[in-house]
Design a protein that fits this description.
homodimer, Rossmann fold, 2 domains, 12% strand
């Protein structure tokens, strides 16, 4: 890899920037960032890389372009880079849903230009380059999208890239990706937003404060519900069919649970409560979380 | 306060034990514990206090009794202590729902014996005396239940006790308590259990593993869903009317959200996603959580 262009330098873009620089993965790193606020922050933080004023300058000089913008920006960006990109430049991205963006890419990206989609499973509830960190992707899964006709050579380049970043790579189709993450990520976020909204609705109706008593559970959801709204709107819209099915499955379980508690169905409830503990043990076993008890955090 | 009896010495009972001892709140601390496994652990950990073999020994020698058992044990315990308790002994508890247990107390506790209900907002997803810690209740809210006819003197004794433990005390009725916590604690836990169950259902149906990709949200719910099943069954059964209403409100929001994403209703979704962030800011402002970004935890 010679030169890399990062388009969009917020939380994740700036984390990549830091790690690419630290690991000396590229000769030159170019940054294209629309937000003047972010550019000021990047300069103040003295982050590595060259901030380019024109997209063209970054694109024609790079071997790899990484889209780190919200997914709703892809189409516009593609239409712009089509004017000066050549087939020796490879593109990837870090978007959280894949099937819809693959259609956008297919429809709008200039022929003979290759785009291998990636999705590193990393992030946080805060946004902006000031919160990025070089270890963001380290030891985390990165999904690289491989369809039947994806050129193997390009898959290898992108896989190698993420491994240098420190991620563990797994290959799967866009369809499978979107199904899995509708359950493990999109539904949890959607639930968190709606739980917090329900608490707000309740607070308005009852006219007494309850947020100060949130340490008993609500707090943990509020963290997730604080994630970037543009990014999450894009995910919800892009993966709406899978997410709708996930919501339906979840509501079905919720209604059955409600029935069980109203009938005081001891056997069924205990079975469910024990069953879910097994998932927790599995998550810890798979090193996706730690088993240290999480008391009142401070 | 001279002597205190702790009935049930698991995670929370043993935390109280540690703090009562550290802060020298009682002359003698008695422990009544049914589980032989827990008794072995308590001895091995060399926790302070005197393990009594008979309930009578603890009750007749104590000025304050603290119920730290699952709420479903209260009735049996009350029927036993009725045989030897005198009116100079005050009772409290740490149960997470209040109206149903207040009925049990009213119905079964011997006349002229006073029980002031408490609910310290503390806990963890792990159980057992080995996970207890003296700082468990420090700086946390403790709800003390005050109805119109509750003797002021007894409220003062219990309030003083929790302040010595290090908690911040707030008084409210059992009815208000159960409404608030149906939203801020019971619904979040119920949702966590059902989300994890939905992930299991999906995994079975699809026949491919998804738990290893849980770092994108599911992980955070699985922690909450690992909490003690007996304790949570009791809460769900005891507070089922409020919880059912909370589920209905939540499902209503969920269905509206689903409709919004299927119609790609940008304005409505963005408004909701921004709105919930305000709750997060409020939670941090009220010192119920920290604002440090929660990246991949390790």
């Amino acid at each position: 890899m010679k030169n890399i262009l990062i388009i969009g330098c917020g939380l994740l873009g700036s984390s990549l920037l830091r790690q690419i620089s630290k690991k000396k993965i590229a000769k030159k790193i170019f940054i294209y960032e629309k937000s003047k606020l972010n550019i000021t922050k990047i300069k103040k933080l003295r982050l590595p890389g060259i901030i380019v004023k024109s997209l063209k300058e970054g694109v024609v000089n790079s071997d790899l372009i990484i889209f780190c913008t919200p997914m709703s920006e892809y189409k516009n960006m593609i239409l712009k880079i089509n004017n000066f990109i050549s087939s020796k430049t490879l593109i990837t991205d870090i978007g959280s849903s894949k099937l819809e963006t693959s259609k956008i890419i297919k429809k709008f990206l200039k022929k003979k230009i290759h785009w291998i989609q990636s999705h590193p499973i990393a992030g946080s509830e805060v946004s902006g380059p000031e919160h990025g960190k070089e270890s963001m992707f380290y030891g985390r899964w990165c999904i690289v999208i491989k369809e039947k006709n994806t050129p193997k050579n390009n898959i290898n380049i992108i896989t190698k890239f993420w491994k240098k970043i420190g991620s563990k790579v797994v290959l799967m189709s866009a369809e499978k990706h979107d199904k899995i993450f509708s359950i493990t990520s999109h539904l949890p976020h959607l639930i968190a937003y709606n739980l917090v909204k329900s608490a707000q609705d309740f607070e308005k109706k009852q006219s007494y404060g309850l947020i100060k008593f949130s340490a008993g559970g609500l707090r943990d959801f509020s963290r997730i519900a604080a994630s970037n709204q543009i990014m999450w709107r894009d995910i919800f819209f892009n993966n709406k069919d899978n997410i709708s099915k996930a919501i339906d499955l979840f509501i079905k379980n919720l209604n059955q649970f409600k029935k069980d508690i109203n009938l005081k169905n001891n056997k069924s409830i205990i079975k469910k409560l024990i069953q879910t503990k097994k998932v927790r043990s599995k998550i810890i076993r798979l090193k996706q979380d730690i088993d240290k008890p999480d008391f009142g955090r401070n």
